[in-house]
Amino acid sequence: MEFITSEAFDPSLLLALFFVALFAGFIDAVAGGGGLLTIPALLLAQVPPIQALATNKLQASFGTFSAAMTMVKRGQVNLKQLRITLLYCFIGAVLGTWLVQISSPEWLEYIVPFVISVICFYFLFAPNPGEVEANPRVSEKSWQRFFVPTLGFYDGYLGPGAGMFYTLGAVALRGRELIQATANAKVLNLTSNLASLVIFVLGGNVVWVLGLAMLIGQLIGGNLGAHAVLKGGARFIRPVIVVVCLCMLAKNLIV
Questions:
Q1: In 193-204, which positions are buried (b, 16+ CB within 10 angstroms) versus exposed (e)?
Q2: Residue 96, pLDDT score
Q3: Counted domains in the chain
Q4: Is residue 102 part of a domain?
C-alpha cells in the first residue's frame, strides 16, 4: 500500500485545503455531504485513498464537533436520551473503519448513488418533510440497534453523506422534526467520526499536516453552518439537502 508522510507541503496547497474544508464544514453542518468536497480535494493533492479517508476523518471530526456543540448549547440535543444510540453508532463506525483498512470500499460506489437519489426525491417531493413531528415508522429499539449502527458502519467505511443519512433516517423512520433530526445527526456524525478517527490514528494513516490545516477551516465552517440551521429552520435545510444530493449524484455520474 502506498503512503505519504507529513513532510513540508506547499503553503498554497494548505491554504486551498483550508478553504475547501471551511465550505465543507458549513455544508456538513446544514445537510451533510461535505466529504464530497474534502475527499476529492485530498485525492487531488496526491494523498493515497486510505490516507485520504483517514485525514478526512481528522478534519471532519472537528467540523462536526463545532456543529454538535452549538446544537447542544442551544438545547436542541438531549445527550442523556441519546446515550444508547451513540454507543451503537460508535460500534458500527469502529467496525466499518477496521474493515476499510483491510478491504476496498469500491463496491459502495454502486450503492451510494441509489441511496442519495432516494434522499433527494424524498426531500424534493414529500409534502413538508420534517416540518412537524410525525408518527414513527420504526421502533426506537430498531432505530438504535439496526439503522444507527448501519449508518455508523457506512460512515466508518466510506463517509460522504453520512450526516445526511442520519437526518433522513430520523425524519423518515422516526418522524422527527427536521431541525431536531439535523441536531441529533450532528452528534451521531461526531460519534462515528471520532470512532473512525481513533482506528485510523492507531493504523498510522493520518497525514497530520494536511489534516490540521483543514480542521481549522472545518471548525469555522461547522460553527457558521450550525447557526444557519438554527436561524433558517426547515425551510433552509430542505433545499440545501436537495442541492447537495444533486451535486453528489452529478459527481458520481461524471466520474
A1: bbbbbbbbeebe
A2: 93
A3: 1
A4: yes
The Cα 104–Cα 106 span in angstroms is 6
Is 6 domain-assigned?
no
Find the domain containing 135 and state its range: 11-254
Counting Cα atoms < 13 Å in the Cβ hemisphere of 142 gives 8
114-to-52, 110, 134 alpha-carbon distances in Å: 24, 7, 25
How confident is the model at residue 89, as a pLDDT? 96
pLDDT at 67: 81
Number of Cα atoms under 13 Å in the Cβ half of residue 75:
0
Residue 65 lies in a domain: yes
Q: Is 90 part of any domain?
A: yes
Q: How many CB atoms lie within 10 A of CB 225?
A: 28
C-alpha distances (whole Å) from 140 to each of 121, 153, 188, 245 are: 25, 19, 15, 27
Q: What angle do CA 29, 197, 188 make, to 5 degrees?
A: 40
| Residue 209 CB contacts under 8 Å (≥ 6 apart), including other chains | 6, 7, 8, 9, 14
**Running along the chain, 255 residues long, what does each successive block of 10 average in pLDDT?**
55 89 82 74 83 89 84 86 94 93 67 66 59 74 93 87 84 84 90 94 91 90 80 64 68 59
Number of Cβ within a 10 Å radius of residue 58: 23
Predicted model pTM:
0.77
Cell 431536531, residue located: 180
For residue 1, what pLDDT is reported? 46
* Cα–Cα distance for residue pair 142/84, rounded to 1 Å: 12
